[in-house]
């Protein structure tokens, strides 16, 4: 008479809860099924950091693959002249493509990431990340799709810098950043940093937009008054 196989141990409740959160935030990973999600959750380390925290810096090794559950991380490239260029943001349900590239290539970060808000994320250690890429097709598909999405975004950024006029680029940025009430909470310097320009140029263009009745300028805020006009300029 055959001896029955021992039951497969279930994941602890904390791991199951994290697996459900990851599945809810990352639909592509959810397609992998509960077993893969629980494997990810069992190996991931949950981190919670306040706004302003440096998540990673240039020339630092990557300590793991982040799955952002809450908050926003701003990834920028710094230059010797003191200027910086925003590459992208990592928001809930997203991951950092530079982290995956550094882990797969065993390289250091070429840019830096800072928490714009309080951030909660699940970090998969390097060796576990590489094992998941090799052994889990759904996880591997997610990582490669991340490369494709970010590459398209970065190519769009290069195209905008190369071919769009300065006023078109700023108009496009304002339309994208405006909240439900049309307000953008940012200084001119912060907009310049995000835009990859200098504060004086941003201030001059914003005053021009205000003279046209397209925006209303206040202390550390810009309110979009005429999104249609800005959108037309961005597309022209």
Keywords:
4-stranded antiparallel beta sheet, disordered N terminus, 236 residues, 3-stranded antiparallel beta sheet, single chain, elongated, alpha+beta, 49% helix
List the SSEs and their pairings.
Layout: H1 13-25, H2 27-30, H3 34-43, E1 45-49, E2 54-56, E3 65-70, E4 73-78, E5 84-90, H4 97-105, E6 112-115, E7 119-124, H5 126-135, H6 137-163, H7 166-177, E8 183-184, H8 188-195, H9 199-211, E9 215-218, E10 221-224, H10 227-235
Antiparallel strand pairs: 1-7, 2-6, 3-7, 4-5, 4-6, 8-10, 9-10
Helix pairs in contact: 1-3, 5-6, 7-10, 8-9
N-to-C series of helices and strands: HHHEEEEEHEEHHHEHHEEH
Estimated radius of gyration: 21 Å
Distance between the termini: 79 Å
Number of contiguous helices: 10
Percent helix among the residues?
Answer: 40-55%
Strand order of the largest sheet: 2-6-4-5
The total beta strand count reads: 10
**What percent strand?**
15-25%
Which residues sit in consecutive blocks of at least 5 with pLDDT less than 50?
Answer: 1-9
- The gross shape turns out to be elongated
Sketch the major β-sheet.
4 strands, antiparallel
User: What's the assembly state of these chains?
Assistant: single chain
Please identify the structural class as seen in this structure. Answer: alpha+beta
Mean pLDDT: 86
Q: How would you characterize this protein structure?
A:
With 236 residues, this protein is of the alpha+beta class. Helices cover 49% and strands 20% of the residues. It contains ten helices and ten strands. The chain has helices at residues 13-25, 27-30, 34-43, 97-105, 126-135, 137-163, 166-177, 188-195, 199-211, 227-235, and strands at 45-49, 54-56, 65-70, 73-78, 84-90, 112-115, 119-124, 183-184, 215-218, 221-224. The chain has a four-stranded antiparallel beta sheet. Strands 1-7-3 form a three-stranded antiparallel beta sheet. It is elongated. Residues 1-9 have low confidence and may be disordered.
């Amino acid at each position: 008479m055959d001896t029955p196989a021992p039951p497969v141990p279930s994941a602890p409740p904390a791991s199951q809860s994290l697996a459900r959160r990851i599945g809810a935030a990352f639909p592509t990973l959810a397609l992998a099924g509960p077993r893969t999600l629980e494997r990810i959750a069992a190996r991931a380390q949950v981190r919670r950091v306040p706004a302003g925290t440096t998540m990673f810096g240039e020339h630092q090794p990557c300590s793991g693959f982040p799955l952002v559950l809450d908050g926003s991380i701003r990834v920028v490239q710094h230059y010797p002249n003191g200027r910086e260029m925003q590459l992208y943001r990592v928001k809930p349900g997203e991951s950092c493509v530079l982290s995956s590239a550094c882990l797969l290539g065993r390289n250091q970060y070429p840019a830096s990431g800072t928490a714009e808000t309080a951030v909660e994320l699940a970090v998969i250690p390097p060796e576990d990340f590489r094992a998941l890429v090799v052994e889990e097709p759904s996880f591997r598909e997610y990582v490669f799709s991340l490369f494709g999405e970010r590459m398209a975004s970065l190519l769009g950024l290069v195209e905008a810098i190369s071919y769009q006029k300065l006023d078109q680029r700023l108009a496009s940025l304002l339309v994208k950043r405006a909240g439900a009430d049309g307000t953008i909470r940012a200084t001119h310097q912060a907009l310049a940093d995000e835009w990859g320009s200098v504060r004086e140029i941003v201030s001059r263009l914003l005053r021009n937009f205000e003279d046209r009745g397209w925006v209303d300028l206040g202390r550390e805020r810009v309110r979009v008054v005429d999104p249609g006009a800005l959108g037309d300029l961005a597309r022209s």
